[in-house]
C-alpha cells in the first residue's frame, strides 16, 4: 500500500477534531463539573488524609512505572542500553503523552530517539515500541477479563458481567489457538476471526485483521508473552491499587474487584485518543463507575482526582528532568 493511499484526507482530521471537541465538552459539562462541585465541598478531607496512605500510593505508583520499564527492558533483551536509561526514556514519553495533543505518536517518537541514542539498535527499538503498544493494552484487557470472574462466581451474574466474561473467554481461546504451532488450530482461529469480521462494518474489518496478525506475531515469542503476563500486567494492577488506596483513604473501604473494574473501564475508554492521556474521559468514567458500585460521592470524586493527580500530573515535571538528564548525557 502506497503512502498516498494511507494518507487520510484533510476533512477526516477536521471531522475527528470536531467530534473530539464536542465529546470533551460534553464530558466536562455533564460529568466532570458536577463532580468537581462535590469535591469543593469536601476539600477539608484532603488536609486530613493520613501521610501513610499518601506514602503507600506514591510507592505503588513508582512501582507501576518501574514495571513498565521492566516490560520495555524485557522486549529489548540483548540490547546494551542500561535500565536507568530505559526508565528515564519511558518516563519522558509518559510525560509527553500527557501534555501534547496526539501525545501517543509524539511520545513514541521521543522514546525511539532516546532509546537509540542510549545504544539500542533502531530495529530493536521499533520492535519494542510496536510490542509495547500492543502488549500493554492487551494486558489491560486481560486484567479487565480476570476482574469479571469474581463477579460471575461470587456475585449475581448480571448480563454485563456474563457478556464481558464470555467475550474475553472467546478472545483468549482464539489467542491460544493462534500461537499453537498446529496448522489446524490456526485455521480454526482464523475462520472464527473472519466470521466475526464479516459482521462488522466494512472499514473495521481490515483493522481487526491487521491487529490480529500483529497479536499473533507478538504472542508467538515466548519471552514477549512472559513480559506481557508479568510486567505489563503488574503495571496496570499496581496503578489500579493506587486508586483503591485513595478510595480507602477517604473512609470508603470497598472490595478491590469493583475498583479494578472501574479502573479498567476508564482506561479502556482512554484508548480512543479524544484527549491527551484521556484527561476528563478517565475521570468521568472512573467516578461514574465507582458511584455505580455504591462508593459515596465525595469519596469517589476525591479518590479519582487524587489518583489522577499522582498518576497523570506528578510524572510530568519528572519527565522533564529525565529528558534533560538524557540529553545532557547524550551530548
Question: Please, could you describe this protein's structure?
Answer:
It contains 15 helices and no strands. With 331 residues, the protein is mainly α. It has one domain (58-330). Helix 7 (122-153) crosses helix 12 (256-269) and helix 12 packs antiparallel against helix 13. The longest helix is centred in the middle third of the chain and has 32 residues, at 122-153. The protein is globular. The two termini are 39 Å apart. 34% of the residues are buried. Mean pLDDT is 76; it is low at 1-6.
The residue-averaged pLDDT reads 76
Proportion of strand residues: under 5%
Portion of residues within helices: over 70%
The major pleated sheet works out as: none
Q: What is the H/E order?
A: HHHHHHHHHHHHHHH
The radius of gyration is 21 Å
User: In terms of per-residue confidence, which ranges show pLDDT below 50 for 5 or more consecutive residues?
Assistant: 1-6
Work out the helix count.
Answer: 15
Task: Summarize the structure in short.
The radius of gyration is 21 Å and the shape is globular.
Amino acid at each position: 500500500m502506497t503512502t498516498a493511499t494511507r494518507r487520510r484526507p484533510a476533512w477526516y482530521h477536521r471531522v475527528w477534531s470536531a467530534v473530539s471537541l464536542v465529546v470533551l465538552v460534553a464530558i466536562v459539562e455533564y460529568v466532570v463539573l458536577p463532580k468537581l462541585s462535590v469535591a469543593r465541598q469536601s476539600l477539608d478531607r484532603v488536609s486530613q488524609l493520613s501521610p501513610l496512605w499518601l506514602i503507600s500510593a506514591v510507592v505503588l505508583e513508582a512501582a507501576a512505572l518501574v514495571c513498565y520499564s521492566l516490560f520495555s527492558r524485557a522486549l529489548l533483551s540483548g540490547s546494551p542500553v542500561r535500565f536507568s536509561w530505559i526508565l528515564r526514556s519511558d518516563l519522558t514519553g509518559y510525560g509527553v503523552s500527557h501534555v501534547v495533543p496526539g501525545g501517543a505518536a509524539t511520545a513514541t517518537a521521543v522514546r525511539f530517539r532516546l532509546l537509540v541514542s542510549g545504544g539500542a539498535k533502531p530495529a530493536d527499538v521499533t520492535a519494542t515500541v510496536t510490542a509495547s503498544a500492543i502488549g500493554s493494552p492487551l494486558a489491560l484487557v486481560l486484567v479487565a477479563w480476570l476482574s469479571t470472574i469474581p463477579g460471575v462466581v461470587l456475585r449475581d451474574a448480571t448480563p454485563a458481567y456474563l457478556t464481558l466474561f464470555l467475550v474475553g473467554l472467546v478472545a483468549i481461546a482464539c489467542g491460544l489457538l493462534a500461537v499453537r504451532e498446529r496448522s489446524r488450530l490456526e485455521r480454526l482461529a482464523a475462520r472464527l476471526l473472519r466470521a466475526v469480521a464479516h459482521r462488522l462494518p466494512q472499514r473495521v474489518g481490515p483493522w481487526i485483521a491487521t491487529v490480529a496478525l500483529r497479536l499473533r506475531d507478538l504472542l508467538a515469542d515466548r519471552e514477549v508473552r512472559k513480559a506481557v503476563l508479568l510486567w505489563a500486567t503488574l503495571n496496570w494492577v499496581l496503578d489500579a491499587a493506587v486508586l483503591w488506596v485513595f478510595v480507602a483513604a477517604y473512609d470508603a473501604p470497598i472490595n478491590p474487584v469493583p475498583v479494578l473494574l472501574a479502573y479498567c473501564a476508564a482506561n479502556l475508554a482512554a484508548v480512543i485518543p479524544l484527549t491527551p492521556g484521556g484527561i476528563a474521559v478517565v475521570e468521568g468514567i472512573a467516578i461514574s463507575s465507582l458511584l455505580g458500585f455504591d462508593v459515596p460521592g465525595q469519596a469517589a470524586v476525591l479518590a479519582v482526582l487524587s489518583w489522577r493527580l499522582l498518576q497523570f500530573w506528578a510524572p510530568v515535571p519528572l519527565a522533564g528532568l529525565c529528558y534533560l538528564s538524557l540529553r545532557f548525557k547524550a551530548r
